[in-house]
Amino acid sequence: MSKYIYLTDYVAGKGSDKHIACAASKARLANLSLSFSRQLATNVKVNAIAPSLLMFQEGDNKEYQQKALKKSLLCLEPGEQEGVAAVQYLLSSRYMTKRTLAFGGGRHLALLSKL
């Protein structure tokens, strides 16, 4: 499973010099979803959501925004509705369990290509 997490969520699988708390929390979340899915199956589906950038904060300047957008392949700010759609997708699935749904516009691929 660590291979899956590494490929879908670069920060949780590799860590980060600048975002230590974020990397640790995403790795913890993935592990919790694995553990609870084992413990609660067949009665409860357990999944996690690990998004990258969804929205900028009001104080973020244009230079920061452009730098952040260039970290993904799609180079866009998806907005809060992308998070809502992810939750709706997981709630509508009768079969998916034990997964961390990582979405970041291809951010993990853009970061891997810079190694």
Question: Could you walk me through the main structural features you see in this protein, from its secondary elements to its overall organization?
Answer:
It is a single chain. The chain has a two-stranded parallel sheet. 53% of the residues lie in helices and 9% in strands. By secondary structure, it is mainly α.
Pick out its properties.
two-stranded parallel ribbon; 2 strands; mainly alpha; 115 residues; 53% helix; single chain; disordered N terminus
Q: What is the mean predicted local confidence, pLDDT?
A: 81
> How far is the first residue's CA from the last residue's CA?
22 Å
Radius of gyration: 15 Å
Query: How would you classify the helix and strand content by structural class?
Result: mainly alpha
Give helix % range: 40-55%
Secondary structure: number of strands = 2
In sequence order, what are the helices and strands, one letter per element? HHHEHHEH
Main sheet: strands, sense, barrel = 2 strands, parallel
Query: How much of the residues is beta strand, in percent?
Result: 5-15%
Which runs of at least 5 residues are low in confidence (pLDDT < 50)? Answer: 1-8
What's the arrangement of strands in the largest beta sheet?
A: 1-2
The gross shape turns out to be globular
Number of helices: 6
Give the helix/strand layout:
Blueprint: H1 2-8, H2 10-14, H3 20-40, E1 47-51, H4 62-69, H5 80-92, E2 99-103, H6 107-113
Parallel strand pairs: 1-2
